[in-house]
Write a structure and sequence with these properties.
Layout: H1 28-40, H2 58-74
Length: about 80
């Protein structure tokens, strides 16, 4: 059985987590293949970011929302 890694906060760390403001722009076309590869190969680091929020343009948001609605109807 593999050992579980446990991380503990040091006593001087504050309870609040400092959120990093978005500071890097990346093209979706560059990002998607990397994320798809990481997901397909179960890279554990990807799980660290599953709760992170991303900012998308309003038109992409509309397309994604419509896609989800259509996908739900066809299931």
């Amino acid at each position: 059985m593999a050992a579980q890694l446990r991380l503990y906060a040091s006593p001087h760390e504050t309870e609040e987590v400092d959120l990093q403001p978005p500071s890097v722009n990346i093209r979706l076309g560059d990002l998607l293949p990397l994320l798809a590869f990481a997901k397909r190969n179960n890279y554990l680091w990807l799980q660290d970011f599953l709760e992170d929020e991303v900012t998308v343009t309003p038109d992409l948001y509309d397309v994604i929302r419509s896609f989800c609605e259509q996908r739900g109807r066809s299931a």
